[in-house]
Each structure stands twice: as C-alpha cells, then as structure tokens.
C-alpha cells in the first residue's frame, strides 16, 4: 500500500493492491495490518455502497460528535469527481477543500479522518462507491453542508440531488463541532476509540 498525503492534513490517497487482467481487475480496499503499521484508524463498524447515475451529486456528508467517524471511500465501478472539506476548527486548512478523480480502474481509495465532509459527483453512467466507517450510522448525528457552498468547482451545474442534500446548511452558516488534532509523530491519525 502506497500512501500519499492530500492538501488537507490527516487525509490520504491510498494506492491499494490492484491487479488487472483479461477478466477485469481485483482490488483489496483494506488491510488491517497495513493500516496499523501506518498509524491509521482501522476499527471499521459499518461498510456500505451507493449506486449513482451520471450527474448525481451526493454530499457533502459527515456525522457529528459523538458519532463522528473516520471514513475510507473508494470507487469500485465507474468514476467519480470526489470532494472533501475540512471542518476541524484550528486546522491549517479549516474550511478549505480538495478534489480528486476516483475510478474503479485506478486502485485508489481516500482515507478521511473525523471532521471531514465528503461528497462526490458521478461521472459515469453508473458509479458505485464503497464506504467503510469507524462508527455506525446515527440518524441524529448524520448531517452535512450544502454541496455548492464550499467553493468547489464541480463538473456539473445542475446535478441530481436528494431533497435532504438540497436543504443542508451552507458552509458559512455551519458552526462546526470538530476540533483539529495534529497528526501523530509518525504522520498517521491518532487512534481514537
């Protein structure tokens, strides 16, 4: 596994084991021992997928404390324009964003610590995303910020959105409950229960 830092501290692009052949490809998205060696939180509680059609935007989502989580996100079919926003007060990149192009054929996943909002736009006819989270879904804590309020240059002007995503608060009106914790001395995330 090769780890590359992103512009937001504690967020990483992981190039995982990816093996294409004449049948298609095999990708190992997660390896607990390798995560532990890198100091990355790996106690995932839930894993789920979304299937989205071209032009769908989902996000920008997160769970607030006490059910906040570290998230591992990958595209396992198609391709996606992926976006993250730093919501951690005190972070050197507070309220800044970063974007990525995730594809099923690249063998890359995003590692996102607590306090990072995540969203994506489906670029292919069908885009399947897989998520692993270190906390279970908690409807009372499940929230987000408005997709168009963080200064992100999305690849679409009129996306297909859920009613929920259309009604999320704008970033400038969001009072963040998250606080930045500098990375551990080895560069990884501080392990949290």
In short:
The chain is mainly beta. 6% of the residues lie in helices and 42% in strands.
General form: globular
By CATH, the topology is Jelly Rolls
Whole-angstrom Rg:
16 Å
Helix/strand order, N-terminal first: EEEEHEEEEEEEEEEHE
Q: Indicate the multimeric state.
A: single chain
The share of residues in extended strands comes to: 35-45%
Any idea of the CATH class?
Answer: Mainly Beta
Distance between the termini: 24 Å
* Count of the domains: 1
**What is the strand tally?**
15
User: Which homologous superfamily in CATH is the superfamily?
Assistant: Jelly Rolls
**Share of residues in helices:** under 10%
CATH architecture: Sandwich
How would you explain this protein's 3D organization?
The model is unreliable at 188-193 (pLDDT under 50). With 193 residues, this protein is mainly beta. It has helices at 32-38, 163-166; strands at 2-5, 12-15, 17-21, 24-28, 46-53, 57-63, 71-77, 79-86, 88-89, 97-103, 108-112, 116-122, 126-133, 142-144, 178-179. Strand 3 and strand 4 (24-28) form a beta hairpin. The longest helix is centred in the first third of the chain and has 7 residues, at 32-38. It has two helices and 15 strands. The two termini are 24 Å apart. The chain has a single domain (2-179), classed as Jelly Rolls (Sandwich), CATH 2.60.120. The strands form four sheets. The chain has a six-stranded antiparallel sheet with strand order 1-2-11-7-13-5, with no helix packed on it. It has a five-stranded antiparallel sheet with strand order 10-8-12-6-14, with no helix packed on it.
